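Figure 6 in text form: structure in, sequence out.
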């Protein structure tokens, strides 16, 4: 499961690296133009003209970089800790058994299960279980502290096809 997630973000990482390199080159051109002006190689008018073009390129590149940065944040790699998932599921089971009212049981189920799909024969087709900081807080002893290495603010889902 961890390998599948890391393969999906390779194109985004490559595009991000390309744009960062491009941005650095453009900024280097800007510094070079300033040095040329300081060394009296170009006039102030030429400098202003070059800076206008360079600033437009910087702005365009940063504009292209913004959605990629957002994608990088949403695809941040998380190694899914099997022991943590087992602990959450075990604690869910214990809490569900201890809950007295149906309302408490319903709360536990809605906290952990994101979606249940039913096929045309009215049988359970799949169950999506969500893992995020709220689930970890509720079903582990230390809550978010356990996930400090892997921030789960962007939840992930496990789907069981039945």
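Output sequence:
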């Amino acid at each position: 499961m961890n390998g599948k997630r890391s393969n999906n973000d390779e194109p985004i990482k490559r595009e991000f690296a390309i744009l960062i390199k491009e941005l650095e080159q453009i900024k280097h051109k800007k510094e070079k133009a300033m040095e040329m002006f300081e060394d009296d190689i170009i006039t102030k008018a030429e400098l202003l003209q070059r800076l206008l073009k360079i600033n437009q390129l910087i702005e365009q590149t940063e504009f292209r970089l913004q959605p990629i940065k957002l994608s990088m944040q949403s695809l941040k790699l998380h190694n899914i800790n099997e022991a943590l998932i087992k602990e959450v599921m075990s604690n869910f089971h214990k809490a569900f058994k201890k809950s007295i009212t149906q309302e408490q049981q319903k709360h536990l189920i809605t906290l952990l299960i994101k979606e249940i799909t039913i096929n045309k024969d009215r049988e359970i087709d799949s169950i999506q279980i969500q893992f995020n900081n709220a689930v970890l807080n509720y079903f582990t002893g230390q809550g978010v502290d356990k996930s400090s290495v892997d921030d789960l603010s962007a939840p992930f889902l496990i789907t069981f096809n039945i």
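Caption detail: The mean pLDDT is 80.
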